[in-house]
Each structure stands twice: as C-alpha cells, then as structure tokens.
Amino acid sequence: MQQPTTLEKPDFGPKWFWDLDYEKIDWQASYKTVIARIIERGKQQQWQELVRFYGLQKVVDTLKNEIVFLPGYAIEDACSYLPIKKEEMLCYTKKQSRPAHWL
Asked: Locate the DUF6922 domain: which residues (predicted)?
C-alpha cells in the first residue's frame, strides 16, 4: 500500500483550481474538494499525484465514504484506475437511491 508523501502541497497547477485562490488552499483540510476535482477532471498523471500526496488509502476511503457526487464517467474512470468498485462509492449508491423522473 502506498503511503502519502509529506510535502507542503501536491504538484497540481492552478488551472485545476481556477475558482479558488490557489496560494491559499489548505491541501489537508480541503482534501475532499481536491480529490473530487482531480477524479472528475484529471487524467492518469494527476491521479498518480493525488495518490502520491494523499496516499491510496485516503483517496479510496474518501471516495467510499465522503464524496457525495461525481458524474458517471468519473465513477467509471475511478473504478478502472483505483482498487474500488462503483457499488462501494457513496456517490454511486446515492445516485442509485434517487428515484428517476417517470418521463
């Protein structure tokens, strides 16, 4: 299991966090936002950096228990890259429990 590497901040450029003041991001306190953003918009290189910075276990645990929404394509991508099944992800189980409109 990969352990997190302790650094001040991960190697993500400001473009990933265009809506935030990049220099003021508290990377530890904002881990849910960072993980969700990178899982949704990043590719393999950014995912590797996410795992390097936070550690595989924290990324997987956050996906399983804390992230409430991800689009379907991001759920599928996460399952293909990380050791997690979509049925284990909170965002997937919440999506399944929402009734669809009858139309």
From this structure: 14-62
| 1 or 37, which is more confident | 37
- The domain segmentation of the chain, as residue ranges, is 14-97
Q: How many CB atoms lie within 10 A of CB 60?
A: 20
In sequence order, what are the residues at sequence separation of 6 or more whose Cβ sits closer than 8 angstroms to the Cβ of residue 63? 35, 39, 78, 82, 84, 88, 89, 90, 91
86, 92 Cβ separation under 8 angstroms: yes
pLDDT at 8 over 90: no
The label of the residue with tokens 């929404």 reads 69
Give the CA angle between residues 83, 66, 52 to the nearest 5°: 50
> Dihedral, CA atoms, 37, 79, 92, 38, nearest 10 degrees?
0
The predicted-structure confidence for 24-67, as pLDDT tens digits, reads as follows 999 999 999 999 999 999 999 999 999 999 999 999 999 999 99
